[in-house]
Amino acid sequence: MYQGGYTGKILRINLTDKTIKEEKLPLEVAKDFIGGAGFGIKYLFDEVKPGTDPLGPGNKLIFAPGPFTGTTIPCASRISVTGKSPLTHTVGMCLSGGHFPAEMKHAGYDVLIIEGKSEKPTYIWIKDGEVQLRDGSKVWGTRTFDCQQIIKDDLNDQNVRVACIGPAGENLSKLACIINERRAAGRKGLGAVMGSKNLKAIAIRGNGTLEIASKERFKIARGEMLKAMKESPVLYPQFALTGTPSNVDNTCALGIFPAKNWSATGKFTPVEKIGVEALESRNVGKEHCYICPVGCSLLRLARTGPYAGILSEGPEFETLYSFGGQTGVDNIDSIIAADRLCDELGLDTISTGVTIGFAMELFENGILTITDTEGLELHFGNHQAMNRLIYLMAFRDGLGELLADGVKIAAGKIGRGADRYAMHIKGLELPGYDVRGAKAHGLSYATAYTGGDHNRGYAFQEIFGLPIPYAVDRLSIEGKGKLTKWNQDVRTATSDCPTMCVFLLDTAMAPMATENTASLMEAVTGLTYKPQDIEKVGERINNLARAFNVQEGFTRAEDTFPERLMTEPLESGASKGHFISKEDLKVMLDEYYAARGWALDTGIPTREKLVELGLGSVADQLGV
Amino acid sequence: MYQGGYTGKILRINLTDKTIKEEKLPLEVAKDFIGGAGFGIKYLFDEVKPGTDPLGPGNKLIFAPGPFTGTTIPCASRISVTGKSPLTHTVGMCLSGGHFPAEMKHAGYDVLIIEGKSEKPTYIWIKDGEVQLRDGSKVWGTRTFDCQQIIKDDLNDQNVRVACIGPAGENLSKLACIINERRAAGRKGLGAVMGSKNLKAIAIRGNGTLEIASKERFKIARGEMLKAMKESPVLYPQFALTGTPSNVDNTCALGIFPAKNWSATGKFTPVEKIGVEALESRNVGKEHCYICPVGCSLLRLARTGPYAGILSEGPEFETLYSFGGQTGVDNIDSIIAADRLCDELGLDTISTGVTIGFAMELFENGILTITDTEGLELHFGNHQAMNRLIYLMAFRDGLGELLADGVKIAAGKIGRGADRYAMHIKGLELPGYDVRGAKAHGLSYATAYTGGDHNRGYAFQEIFGLPIPYAVDRLSIEGKGKLTKWNQDVRTATSDCPTMCVFLLDTAMAPMATENTASLMEAVTGLTYKPQDIEKVGERINNLARAFNVQEGFTRAEDTFPERLMTEPLESGASKGHFISKEDLKVMLDEYYAARGWALDTGIPTREKLVELGLGSVADQLGV
Fold first, then answer.
1. Angstrom distances, CA of residue B290 to CA of A323, A403, B158, B201, B579
2. B68: Cβ–Cβ under 8 A, 6 or more apart, which residues?
3. Where in chain B is the domain with CATH 3.60.9.10?
4. Which residues of chain A neighbour B340 with C-beta distances below 8 Å?
5. In this structure, which of A53, A377, A481, B76 has its CB flanked by the most CB atoms within 10 Å?
6. Cβ–Cβ of B284/A154 closer than 8 Å?
7. Distance, CA of A162 to CA of A183 (rounded, Å)
8. Dihedral sign from CA coordinates of A321, A327, A330, A336
9. Which class is domain A243-423?
10. What pLDDT is attached to residue A2?
């Protein structure tokens, strides 16, 4: 018996030589990194050497649920996927939900490390500790939903859970994601990493159960969590009914719903067309992740025009931003269709939509001509062109080839000043909050170890006005450095590692996140934590991830914004006149690095900080 | 315990008053009608009165597998669906395979009779004898594959098997089918009957087993069947590898692959584009019906253009005909896409493709103009227009509304001589054999109780040259009346009732079909049959079905062909010069009615024949 909540096992599969090994998960790794993203980043740092080609056999893909996953703690069926990102060359880490994460725990593994490259298309089949590499030719080329069903039929087991890539991943689009059920490990191009290994899918079936170290403590800690969920004025009364799309209404009200490639934020605010009310007539039902009592994910059915009858789980807020605001499209059914098409083809909806919005602005400005687009009228708002372009991108066909790797690479190929319109940080297309009106949120975009990512230090203080740990003015830069460190560390430790749904943190758990995580960790695993230990785990992981990026050549210079955000004030709406000047950024970064204990001039972690976090060997490796 | 192979139970669900009843299956019904189509037609005749509106609450839908279904007899996981057809107003009966049929038997039922009309969208959930009517609003409007998955999630059981309709059935298209897994109970618009009842789906899970009356006899009879299958020079060596598409090659060679709405048979023979070899590069794997060792159904993946990545189980020969030959389309990937789209939207591929080919010929001849088609360039060969039109038909949108109910109704609306181009018999669009070069096959089209249907008396003697029960010349009319009676009765009794895959009859079992069916029936059920009793069951059912149609006003006058087949000889290919003149038809019909013991002038069964078959009360009802 291992520590409760952990299976104690790492499964290592080398696709080059077809070796399959089980290793013991060291208890000190469990203690120091908790699980999920923590494990992913730990093994990425240790095993993927600087300069590794992200699409070469040297890169690895690390799947890790957390110690809460697969227990009866609700909202914990999450899995992190980590590798070196082909899109950003930083740490690539993202999470997905559904049933796959709990299934992996029940099958007996805390970590799955995939190495090397298969000679032929293959898929992995894991059943309760038995592992096979199977012929993937039957599913190579298929869309993700077909792939999942064919594999279930192939294994003659409809209860198998499958994570897979679509054509986009096979075609090495750097916007490719990994899909399980209707859910995506979406960003940073990890689908292309999977494709580069000729790995189409991972199928899992697990019948095991997980031990709880202290059932008594567990009952209490879980009870506290359930009570906080029940008492939240937001979680069940609002969030469970509408899901994330309410953020369209919210961000439009705040004047921070980015529009038309960030050129019309505050002007184009299609709340009545693509917000909560508009979606109501499209709602057909809910989907729940494994034992989740909330069910924030709604199935929505397109009702009109050439999209009628197309269903999607979603679109989530970020997709409404990317295929709505960002592209100037306010046809909700076309957005539902785009969402579904991305899921089927295995494309990240955020990066894909942002890339299309980018191409649209280039077209509007004459940088891309009708010859470049092969006849596609890429005006803002052209939802048919948008849906067609998704397809072309997944297959790298014509204009799709130019755009298949996101805005940074496309801008480089196009030249002609296109980079001015490329809305990304470190290569990752920006998500759906115009940070000119939410400055800690912006600082987190600038400093997140994954590039322009909303989920590594989400500033709910600014977006939802939650006064945790203290109230802030979203338009001010004051105190945003310290806040961002807190947001990043707490989110990492209480969501990305145990692994717990981020929406729980934002709606119910924020006031007690570290306390409850400490209690649950102790109850589940028997390892002892104080709340500040939990925050320290988050800090450790953010430092280790930063160290990985430093080795890849990232320094302070890359912690920045697209020029537009620093020079063009918002022209309309509730954040009118605001932007983040270069001086503002400098002030926030200085405060942030100081709070982090990183060198102000380079943004590189200091030896003192690394040693304090038990990362002395990392300091040695960095030469600091 | 009931007779082995039968569960002994009829499940009757009235959607109007929500009553759910179990009734005993009378043993004499089992004996006289075997199962499947036999049960369907028996209860349709007894319970659906003449003149009933097929889309009103008075129509019924009868699902019936056979006594072999769910046992270890291979290739028997088939289910018949019977109701009054809204397309033809005749008996509507078709069969589907997959796992759903065996699941129904394992859940405890031989027959499911659905009556009335639900007030709101609903679906039926049957689990091992427990039955619920559940809210169908979550799946109403969805495509068939989504619907199946959502219901599995809704029931929290991934092993459920679901039969459902798509948007086409909801929109009461008379071409709508019922889909389970990737398979269709395709023809005669039974999907619209389901839609008219506000019934979206039937979900079944069964864990029961079926008794075998005599295990010893069973072993012998099943062994004989397996031996015949193994020894067939066709079944495993050819058919299992290529499936039905080999018939494209075969019928093109015979000059009977109908092309361009039957105007260019023998001229347009796209073997190299859409035949077996062309499909080879699209094959990705096999699908098997429940315990079928053959797996004739291949998964195929479109590879090029806007269709890349679209997968279908199929296209079967009939779909290659309807979306290929019939429409003049030789782009194989567009046909794969059309096949998938029909499955998703719940449209019969044969009728839909034939209807589009019909519209294309009207467009080519100026009977439909570009104004009628709202800009769609409906030339033969326009595969993009074809795929677009499928969508419009399912949603009754624009031109789709005109065509959604098939060629007969569309021709009536269009006028201007359009009926000359409407290739149907009794309203059912013609399947993929140009019967001008296969005359018994033609006679079966003309006389089948379901209208222009290839599956009610398939003349494998003509299509494959099998000399069973004797060799015939496909181009001659000689002896075709008697042969057609034999083909219809044997096929009904040995395929449609027990229920056994028709492909088995055509490839391996024909020489011993009635003998083996008699042996298996006796072994499975304990009821005793001689081979001639089996044939007699087929005759009984064909007579009862005819009686149903007679009550609906059908007589000899409707046993005919579209004018084109009787007046335009084939202009090219191996059947050049042939057609079926009105005189030829008269000769064949006279011989057929004589063989059947039906009145020559009216085609109505005689009292003598009906009494001989134990259908005296039917004779009373018909007043003969």
1. 42, 45, 16, 20, 41
2. B5, B35, B76, B498, B499, B500, B520, B524
3. 9-205
4. none
5. B76
6. no
7. 11
8. negative
9. mainly alpha
10. 81
Across the range A546-566, mean pLDDT stands at: 98
Confidence class of residue A1 from pLDDT cuts 50, 70 and 90?
low
Taking 80 as the threshold, does the pLDDT of residue B1 lie above it?
Answer: no
- Chain A CB contacts of B140 under 8 Å are 284
Which ranges of B365-405 would DSSP assign to H, the alpha helix? 383-394, 399-403
Q: Which CATH superfamily is domain B9-205 in?
A: Aldehyde ferredoxin oxidoreductase, N-terminal domain (3.60.9.10)
Contacts of B299 in chain A (CB under 8 A): 138, 150
How many inter-chain contacts (A to B, CB under 8 Å) are there? 79
Q: Which positions ≥6 away from A623 have C-beta within 8 Å?
A: none
Q: What is the pLDDT of residues B412-442, one digit of tens each?
A: 999 999 999 999 999 999 999 999 999 999 9
Question: For chain B, what is the radius of gyration of the CA atoms?
Answer: 22
Whether B519 contacts B226, CB under 8 Å? no
Residue B434 CA to residue B454 CA, distance in Å, equals 11
Please state, in angstroms and rounded to a whole number, the distance separating the CA atoms of residues A403 and A363.
Answer: 13
Q: Which residue has the higher pLDDT, B2 or A42?
A: A42
Angle at which helices B332-345 and B144-154 pack, to 10 degrees? 40
Residue B161 identity: R
For domain B435-561+581-622, give its CATH number from 3.40.50.1820, 1.10.3720.10, 1.10.599.10, 1.20.1250.20.
1.10.599.10
Q: How far apart are CA A12 and CA A8, in angstroms?
A: 13
Q: Could you tell me which residues are beta bridge partners of residue B185?
A: B178
Report residue B30 as tokens: 């089992």
What's the whole-number average pLDDT of chain B?
97
For chain A, the average pLDDT equals: 97
Any residues with CB less than 8 A from the CB of A423 and at least 6 apart, and which? Answer: A258, A261, A262, A354, A357, A358, A407, A429, A430, A562, A564
- Averaged pLDDT for residues A409-417: 98
pTM: 0.96
Q: What is the pLDDT of residues B519-532, one digit of tens each?
A: 999 999 999 999 99
Q: In 3D, which of B246, B240, B207 has the Cα closest to residue B432?
A: B246
* Mutation for testing the A interface, residue in B146, B286, B304 having most A CBs under 10 Å: B146
Total length of chain A: 624
Using CA atoms, how far apart are residues A494 and A534, in angstroms rounded to an integer?
7
| For residues A120-138, average pLDDT | 97
Q: Which residues pair with A285 in a beta bridge?
A: A299
**A360 pLDDT more than 90:** yes
CATH 1.10.569.10 domain range(s) in chain A:
243-423
Tokens linked to A98: 């559904």
Instruction: List every span in chain A annotated with CATH 1.10.599.10.
Output: 435-561+581-622
Distance from CA of A574 to the nearest CA of B (A): 38
- B3 pLDDT exceeds 90? no
CA nearest to B587, candidates B605, B604, B566, B609: B566
Q: Would you state the structure tokens that stand for residue B24, as one six-digit string?
A: 């005993």
CB contact under 8 A, B142 and A284: yes
Residue B198 above 60 pLDDT?
yes
Are A308 and B145 a contacting pair at CB < 8 A? no
Q: Which H helix or E strand runs over B12?
A: strand B9-14
Contact A309 B142 (CB under 8 A): yes
Task: Write out the residues of chain A at the interface with chain B, using a CB-CB cutoff of 8 A.
Answer: 137-143, 145-146, 149-150, 152-154, 158-159, 166-167, 284-285, 287, 299, 301, 303, 306, 308-311, 344-345, 391, 394-395, 397
User: Which ranges constitute the DSSP H helices of A531-612?
Assistant: 531-551, 563-567, 582-596, 607-612
